[in-house]
Amino acid sequence: MLTWYVRPPGDHGESGADERHPIDLVAKIGVVERTISLPAKAGALFPSDQSVCRVAARPDDAGATGLLAELTFSAGGQSGYIIDRESPTELAVVELVRADGDCRNDGGSDRSCVRETKRLGIIPIPRDLSVVEQVVLVEGPTRESRYRCGD
Questions:
Q1: How far apart are CA 52 and CA 135, in angstroms?
Q2: With 90 as the cut, is the pLDDT of residue 117 above it?
């Protein structure tokens, strides 16, 4: 189970108010749990950008390589995190940034907006483990709710 914990932006010390959401990724495999604190991100969590809302479009085939989970914030571009299965026994945690605006090449034709990625770490897993993802919004010290993809 991969769980993204997204906390509300708030006051973070001397620098004053911060519009970024602190994020933790918790990977639970059996009784073993690993928490990875990720750099905070700013922006809105639109359902159309979240892999947890598109699970039917991207089912997890145990052992298949490729994108398994994505948490994307939109604010003048997109930034967030993806989880890639790099091998049957490894998941990669990757930070991503996509540019916003007019995405045309020098010749004037359309092209994909620039996507920058940075690999942050590896999560070792048992061979061919199926992965389940969820997003939890932390609303206070004792209040959490699962992210809703829409009604």
A1: 7
A2: no
